[in-house]
Amino acid sequence: MAGAAGRQHRTTQEQKDHLVKLEYFQSATGRFEDIEVGTTLYFTKTVSETDVYLFSGITGDFSPNHVDEEYMKEGRYGERLAHGALLVGFISAASSRMRVGRTVSLGYDRVRFTGPVRFGDTITTKYEITELDHQKKRIFNQCTCTNQRGEVVGSAIHLRAFVD
Question: The MaoC-like domain covers which part of the protein (predicted)?
Answer without folding.
Answer: 39-138
